[in-house]
Amino acid sequence: MRAADLEVYNVSWAPTKSAQPVLHPTTFRVAAGRVLGVVGPNGAGKSTLLRLLYRFQQPKTGYVRVGGQDIWSMPARNAARRIAAVLQEQASAFGLTVREIVRLGRTPHRSGFATSGAGDEQVVDRVLTTLSLRSLADRDFGTLSGGERQRVMVARALAQDPQVLILDEPTNHLDVRHQLEVVSLIQSLGLTIVVSLHDLNMASGVCDDVLILKNGQPQGFGPPQSLLTDTLVSDTFRVDARREHLASNGASHFSFTLPN
């Protein structure tokens, strides 16, 4: 797997030509191997932006480029070799094992109805090892815990051998231990990653840069340490936010209260 630059320029989206944009023109660049966190309140346009990035919806304006190439200028199969996504919704596995689900990630690399070959199995084995899933390879997906399922879905995405990985709320509905496992995984992958998160403290700890959205409008882009000010966070989320610096390790933590 190799990381690539992700360049997003002036992208916007609306359901129809006459409708109000769900996402207004948005521009940013993620250098190869960096992690971008997309944060904002519900309805801010986070999932819409991600759908443009993994080529589910075509931008009404602007472009998305991976490694300098517009993802809409190439066949869908080629785009799937560059970009993989892990979504919140996990479809039923229909009795598939962990290995069979991970193997599905090799589909963009096959021709027609060809079955998986030795090279595909080597990739699957490598990914299972990387995500510590070999002991679960023959387990039915439906018998796994939430955290284990999330790791399997990430493994399937990694089996695509992508340059960019899109994660939509990867810690949603997970308990604290499994959230920490997913965070540790994100930090270890070495890919260009775009991840939407609700937890600002998690975003500060995991992401190299943060994009803030509100009502489909970008509010700011940059390193979380400088971008996430009390004022910007308070205005975006309609709360009273206070950033507290921890003397023990230099980290910071947001606390929130409702405005009077």
Automatic annotation (TrEMBL):
SUPFAM superfamilies associated with the record: P-loop containing nucleoside triphosphate hydrolases
Keyword Repeat annotated: no
Family annotation (PROSITE patterns): ABC_TRANSPORTER_1 (PS00211), ABC_TRANSPORTER_2 (PS50893)
Domain ABC transporter, chain residue ranges per copy: 6-240
Keywords of the record: ATP-binding, Nucleotide-binding, Transport
InterPro entries in UniProt: AAA+_ATPase, ABC_transporter-like_ATP-bd, ABC_transporter-like_CS, P-loop_NTPase
Membrane found in the keyword field: no
SMART domains: AAA
Similarity section: Belongs to the ABC transporter superfamily.
Full protein name: ABC transporter ATP-binding protein
A GO term, aspect molecular function: ATP hydrolysis activity
